[in-house]
Amino acid sequence: MRLSRYFLPVLKETPSEAQIVSHRYMLRAGMIKQASAGIYSWLPLGYKVLRNIERIVHEEQVRAGHIPMLMPTLQSADLWRESGRYDDYGEEMLRISDRHGRDMLYGPTNEELITDIFRSHVSSYRDLPLTLYHIQWKFRDEIRPRFGVMRGREFLMKDGYNFDLTKEDALHAYNRHLVSYLRSYERMGLQAIPMRADGGPIGGDYTHEFLVLAETGESEVFYDSEITDLKFGDREIDYDDVAQCQAVLEEFTSRYARTDETHDAALFDKVPEARRRSARGIEVGQIFYFGTKYSEAMGANVQGPDGKSVPVHMGSHGIGVSRLLGAIIEASHDEKGIIWPEGVTPFHVGIVNLKTGDAEADAACESLYKSFTALGLEPLYDDTNERAGGKFATMDLIGLPWRITVGPRGLKNGVVELTSRRTGESEELPPEQAVARITAIYGLASA
Ligand code: 5CA
């Protein structure tokens, strides 16, 4: 993309309404614009990152054997009356009536809708196990929407639902989700720690939240510091291997780690004092096993191997896709702006032309641009007439992990400058080598 043709409405001033750094940078970098309280338009740069996060979530869910689909945002109140949650959900639910006076609602989650789909089409244990998921907008009429996309009213969530014959099978589904979430967050450059939590309006008392530690987080958490040393990394995992998934769950949940809702001071005291931590965290996901809560209420039964009809065991599993943008920025920024991890960056590399209009500099930039594009990478080329200082400030603010600076002086010696946004370190090297370096970083074979 050429910056001269892009839509990147960068703000010079810090917006006064933004209280936390991720919200400030998302507004300043022209990623989002508030449409009304807790509801945002996703401008091109923000939209790109949102799509990248979605892609990682999809890839990891499909890898775990879960099946993508799409359910609507608007739902009929009748299904929620069946589960009993229409009255329970309270003021957070946005209730609407259509022209015929039918009660509708903007879905805050989808347990009812998916259970209805399941009971309409599945009646035998032979069709199990089954895990369906979608990535769809949700609406919760939060009393205090704040911090930009972090606590929105309209927000994008991945929600997945497993249907199993037995509790053991459903717990395996729970473990599969835990593993796939660890992988997903690490690919986004985040450490998200599973912590024992509370079921809330979803239900069930077996649930973990995934928390990214950050001072601006809304949750208070207590944990054994040893847990922060754990990494999933690139180990192989067979999602059908029950013991292997169980072992990962045990590895990541055996140490003390709880949100304030389930915090147990007596148990916490057993952790050696030097390792006891209390901190703030951002909840970026939650997994639940709730047994037959919805299947019993809504008659989602299957015929078991013995011919008896039994309600299925279920769980639901959510990732806060839009909230993750805020969480990633909270975890990865400096005083100049955002620092995107390679896995989610909106453009792979920025190209800064120090002297737009200079024939040699223009040609060198064009050549870099073409090389990256041919390799399937997306460069953002600043071909505007802005001063060099302004160009650098914009690149630093929008946080592309790599920048190539091209100017007449360097070109005389046959070199450009490659700069890491994270470390600030720069290196001069011939353009072809800069391309090779970047392609290697993104795991592609260079030309
Ligand atoms: N049905 C279950 C799992 S699919 C469910 O709704 N779980 S949840 O309530 O925990 O939401 C899942 C994730 O959505 C949360 O972990 C959080 O990351 C994100 N989320 C929840 N509320 C908001 C909100 N108001 N703004 C942005 N993200 C939110």
Describe the structure.
By secondary structure, this protein is α+β, with helices and mostly antiparallel strands. The chain contains 14 helices and 23 strands. It folds into two domains: 3-338, Bira Bifunctional Protein, Domain 2 (BirA Bifunctional Protein, domain 2), CATH 3.30.930.10; 349-442, Anticodon-binding domain (Rossmann fold, 3-Layer(aba) Sandwich), CATH 3.40.50. Strands 3, 7, 8, 9, 10, 11, 12, 13 and 16 form a nine-stranded mixed sheet that branches. A five-stranded mixed sheet has the order 20-19-21-22-23, with helices on both faces. The chain is globular and about 80 Å long. It binds 5'-O-(N-(L-cysteinyl)-sulfamoyl)adenosine. 5'-O-(N-(L-cysteinyl)-sulfamoyl)adenosine is lined by residues 109, 140, 142, 151-152, 155, 157, 159, 202, 283-286, 316-318, 320, 322-323.
Q: Helix and strand layout, with pairings?
A:
Blueprint: H1 21-28, E1 32-36, E2 39-42, H2 44-63, E3 67-68, E4 74-76, H3 77-83, H4 85-88, E5 94-97, E6 103-106, H5 111-121, E7 130-139, E8 154-164, H6 167-187, E9 193-196, E10 206-213, E11 219-224, H7 242-253, E12 257-259, H8 265-268, E13 276-291, H9 293-298, E14 301-303, E15 309-311, E16 313-320, H10 321-331, E17 333-334, E18 337-338, E19 349-353, H11 359-374, E20 379-382, H12 388-398, E21 402-406, H13 408-412, E22 416-420, E23 426-429, H14 431-441
Parallel strand pairs: 3-7, 19-20, 19-21
Antiparallel strand pairs: 1-2, 4-6, 5-6, 7-8, 8-16, 9-10, 10-13, 11-12, 11-13, 13-16, 14-15, 17-18, 21-22, 22-23
Helix pairs in contact: 1-10, 2-6, 2-10, 6-7, 11-14
The chain binds 5'-O-(N-(L-cysteinyl)-sulfamoyl)adenosine (5CA).
